[in-house]
Amino acid sequence: MGDLAVYAGLFAVAFVAATLLPAQSEAALAGLIVMGDYSPAALVLVASAGNILGSTVNWLIGRRVEVYRDKRWFPVSPRMLDRATGWYKRYGRWSLLLSWMPVIGDPLTFVAGVLREPLWSFVVMVTVAKTARYLVVAVAVMAA
């Protein structure tokens, strides 16, 4: 049961980290790899799945709530959203390969929903970006 809780916790942290809420999934992944009690491959898969699902929630929200972008309570600043929109309009779906990046990555996934990126291409691009990021973290930790 303890292993399930660890994997569920990593999934949850990775999910939250992909939304517009702050969280550090890379640190959680690195810490679990350093412990040495869990398969690095399984940890990367779980973190990737949580992060991809969290990004998909951003996409879904973007499809539905763009009308609220100028509200005071809206979780993304107009400046950050405009910046992400600019990247997305300039580079299209390829900009989703930057979805792993701090600050602009989460707004990019939101903007993809706003600008009606098809779900299939969204999931493919985000999967490549998010999984590659976790693989780099895992390899770096194991090499240290």
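The record above closes out task 2.4. Task 2.5 opens with a second protein, given below.
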Amino acid sequence: MLLEIGLIAGGVPAGWLLRNNAPLVRAVNGFLGWTVRVMLFLLGMALGLDDALISQLESLGLFAALISTFSVLGCFVTARLLGRYVFTEYAPDGERAASGPARGSRGSFIALAFFAAGALLGWMRILPVGETAGEAAVWVLYLLLFSAGMTVGFDLKALGIIRELKGRILLIPLGVVLGTFAGSTLAWALLSRFADITLTDSLAVGGGFGYYSLATVILTRLGDPALGSVALLSNMMHEALALILPPFLLRYTGRLGPVLAGGAAAMDTCLPVVAQVSGERCAVLAVFSGMCLTMLVPVLLPLIMTLR
């Protein structure tokens, strides 16, 4: 976590020093879009390479897909409500909405295609596997974080938003928690009709807020490896949806939509999408919200599991 924060922080002064270089600013913004696609490709590849996960897709995939989908949609709904009643400056923009819904949906489908291609090639074992693929994903993430920090540095006035919002800024991570748990509850209401799953299980899976590695480890160590597997799949899907959907749903959710949908990953993997789609000011909110949620996950999940 410290390394990720350091990369973002290191990109900020670099962006500030180069802020007047218009061609470079355009290049960095374009680079962000491609790094997101590459990250989605590698995320899909990680899924395709994991035979254990693939074998569990039929039995656990439906649980994971419903919880992740409703959790992300719950965050989008919360973002719309916050934009309408609290953060009116980030409400849905009619002009932006009318300017290019087709372009937004096309970008979403392209991102989805990268994820699907990675999963397919990983499953077919066509590209290098093992440590090589893992190291590539790490370096892409490092580049992504540093570039996202640069976009914040291009407009350092955005940092003043934390001071401007004061206590209101805490409503953003709180909105993620409420939206995620509302979505997880709805997913449980549907799943409980034909599967043996409790509300606590559904909340525990959703409570990873897209932080799939940490959520999986915590739930597995608490004595439920099967639920840990569901958490891994669900939170990976959560992260993928948070990368794919924002350009398409921005017109309905406002600029806070990508921030809340990213959950804990809003401060790293999803940060370039936030910066590109919602702007540098929202990228600052994403870093703050992601840090809060990252610290909340290891506290909240054990508390939820005590309710089983």
